[in-house]
């Protein structure tokens, strides 16, 4: 309930913070000018080298704000990557009906519907790609009539869009059988989400359920499929349920490691915890063409899995990964120090914690913490070890620092990952 309330607050206040602008594109296919809404990501101006996926909204008049509200909420928790939102205005003069004209016999776009289909793929998308910094990943979304129309892009051998959000689609002739056939045949990775509700329009709902029954039988790794059937929702209220569910489904691989993922997929592995982390981010880059720095919270999750399973040699690989992602921070030295400490090489652990003191702090890793860990380990050394002054065995005294001596030591990582900024 708390998240739902926050979601509605984001929707209501979103206009205060959004970069929503109106643009006009002259279409030769439609022989007219069409207005569109553009919503640029919050970081668009700050990160000139970043490219962003496109989210194209049919019925942009009323779908733009709820989508942007849901995205704003997800951005706050870093659950979903930032996207460029493009909303086509289709309801000033009920343009959606002529835009989505379909031949009742063939079940295919006809007359202006055929022109509108070409307008999106051959004019609008290239226009956005030329004007803005876009990643190859593209999503299309719509409701009832426009949702069904978005499905026509799956009829192409190489679909223009990579992900589909089809909310209570008013399916064209034969579409409930044809879409599952296309999902099974398309070779490129496809994300497909559609929804209905027990209060949905009955004639539409029955065909949507038929399509779901056929689509669920498809088993292929390149199809990411989900159907939601909401209880207690109507044809229109299901939209506010569908939007976050669809977005979190499509971008599930982007999300930080959760407690569930940690407990069910990571800590249960016999080994290869660091490899799991590497593959997670490789999949993210391959799917969305986005190269991200590995989140610090994800490092902590893998660290916790290593500690829980006594897989201490993996700290070496984790340290190398930390050095690559955070080269100026103390993270890499900290991971190596844990390797030495857990494998009994106390003198190396002390020196490595002291070395970490010279690097930049990161997250909850502080200079105080590094010195305190080194001092605690010194106390565990036998007196004979403490007194040695051999060239290779000298353990430096704690380096002078202006940090107050009274500062309490920072706790060591727990055996379960912490989820940053997650509400109860």
Folded structure, characterized:
It is a single chain. With 424 residues, the protein is an alpha/beta fold. Helix 1 crosses helix 2 (60-76), helix 12 (314-325) runs antiparallel to helix 13 (331-342) and helix 13 runs antiparallel to helix 14. The chain is built from 16 helices and 8 strands. It folds into 2 domains: 2-254, Alpha/Beta hydrolase fold, catalytic domain (Rossmann fold), CATH 3.40.50.1820; 259-387, Serine Threonine Protein Phosphatase 5, Tetratricopeptide repeat.
Total separate domains:
2
Strand order of the largest sheet: 1-2-4-3-5-6-7-8
Helix content: 40-55%
**What's the main sheet like?**
8 strands, mixed
> Number of DSSP helices?
16
- CATH homologous group name of the largest domain: Alpha/Beta hydrolase fold, catalytic domain
**Gyration radius, in Å:** 27 Å
Detail the poorly predicted runs: 12-17, 389-394, 400-416, 418-424
CATH top level of the largest domain?
A: Alpha Beta
Order of helices and strands: HEEEHEHHEHEHEHEHHHHHHHHH
Q: State the CATH topology of the largest domain.
A: Rossmann fold
Q: In terms of structural class, how would the helical and strand content be classed?
A: alpha/beta
The total count of strands amounts to 8
Kindly, what is the distance between the CA atoms of the first and last residues, rounded to a whole number of angstroms?
10 Å
